[in-house]
Amino acid sequence: MKISDYEFWFVVGSQFLYGAETLRQVEKNSRILVDELNACGKLPCKVVYKDIVKTADGATGIVNEANFSEDCAGIITFCHTFSPSKMWINALSLLQKPWLHFHTQFNLTIPNDEIDMDYMNLHQSAHGDREHGFIGARMRKPRKIVVGYWKKPEVQEKIGKWMKSAAAADFSRNLKVMRFGDNMREVAVTEGDKVEVQMKLGWQVNTWPVGALVEEMDLVTEAETDAKMDEYRSLYDFATDDMETVRYQAKEEIAIRKMLDREGCKAFSNTFQDLYGMKQLPGIATQNLMRQGYGYGGEGDWKVAALTAVMKFMGERSAFMEDYTYDLENGLSLGAHMLEVCPSLSDGKPRIEVHPLGIGDREPPARLVFEGRAGKGVVASLVDMGGRLRLIVQDIECIKPTQTMPNLPVARVMWRPEPDLETGAECWILAGGAHHTVLSYDCDAEMLRDFARIMDIEFVHIDKDTKPETLEKELFFSDIAWKLKG
Questions:
Q1: How much is the pLDDT for 358?
Q2: With CB atoms counted within 10 Å of each terminal CB, which end of the chain scores lower, N or C?
């Protein structure tokens, strides 16, 4: 499913005490609110008005229906009037979908002349939602809380961001990852507990031999390769006359995609230490697959491959990345990889070039070369802390590279980490952040925090206000809390 295929159910809380006339007005107001949200242009998914919950059985019925709906990615609750929270206990204990508690009210201000007891009975979200909030807190239910007037763009944007995170949670629970070979030898951070990851995030991670890929490449026809070359010409500038090398990459891409699609996989990993039977490490093959939404992880890093797929589902301009080298004088980090950076990050039209790789003992591969665009973004890393997963997110400001670097034939992005390079790197290392990340212009820390909350994993955010000594204490207490929780 695409993110726009999902829907979110809008459930209103009330009770029979108010009488039929008030409940009719509650429904009318709620439908107007839902229609406005759907028309605002800031939500990636449709909001579906479901019903007014007036009894415990009514709440349970809607939750059970939502749990078994493939289209429903989550529920949004709004207690327009007073909805006694005990009626929600059974329903919330059964809820398996993400939950957003929307604390708003139908009118923006208090109407001086019109306000009377009838008005007060109709508009009680100021305390109805607090009752509803208590039961969520009492039951320790993870939920997103959005507060504000429903017509304000900033409120609508918050709901839209959460929708992306909630839909990504469903995508994650159905994600399959194809590993070509194992991870790079002796690398610690690319290891991880695949059973724990599938239990928490839903990722099914399995291995296919590189030989199977080579066999698939042998079946690629010249006509298929010609079509892929035409696609490359439409998307990229050719800065090489070595067409045979580019055609080899086209065959790699076609073969990888056939295997991924046949197995229902949306992410893959490989390593230059296991290229048995292959002439080139996949370069443009991997980059162009990422452009199409597939996740990737180098050096066999299946965790970052899956995280790339999840974040690309939330926001297209997301890509596998690695910190390579620093400009310590100006506080900048240069991110790249041997070959595999997604062209969705490019500022301008990428170029296809062929150069020796200097690693992997294979022929010089074709790759896309470009500079990343300027703008705010994040880098995210998922690490296995032993018994739990930790998602680390750092705010960054991508800039136009300060140097031309004419002898560096790779795609690259330069950025200034928050709060600054030295402090940010210290905090990253304190938290155990990997050298592999996902860089995104479209996802932000709020979206990833929501995703971590939904998936019940630890979240660490490094921003402009983060201090190493404070973060170290937070990590210490978090370690204790998660061990107790486990």
A1: 79
A2: C
Residue 144: burial class (beta carbons within 10 Å; 0-12, 13-18, 19+): buried
Sign of the four-CA dihedral 301, 307, 313, 315 = negative
Residue 405: predicted pLDDT:
92
Answer whether the bond into residue 153 is a cis peptide, omega within 30°: no
Query: 298 near 322, Cβ under 8 Å?
Result: yes
CA 323 from chain centre, in angstroms, equals 20
Six-digit token pair at 299?
A: 């050096």
- Measuring CA to CA, which residue among 164, 180, 456, 176 is closest to residue 312? 164
State which H helix or E strand residue 238 sits in.
strand 237-238
Contact 286, 301 (CB under 8 A): no
Binning the chain into helix, strand and coil, the percentages to the nearest 5 are 45, 25, 35
Q: How many residues does the chain have?
A: 486
pLDDT tens by residue, 177-223: 999 988 888 898 889 999 999 999 999 999 999 999 999 999 999 99
- Report the number of secondary-structure helices (H) and strands (E) in the chain: 15, 19
> What is the DSSP track for 260-296?
HHHHT-SEEE--TT--TT-SS--SHHHHHHHHTT-EE
- 354-377 confidence digits (pLDDT tens): 999 877 789 999 999 999 999 999
User: Binning pLDDT at 50, 70 and 90, where does residue 121 land?
Assistant: confident
pLDDT, tens only, 65-114: 999 999 999 999 999 999 999 999 999 999 999 999 999 999 999 999 89
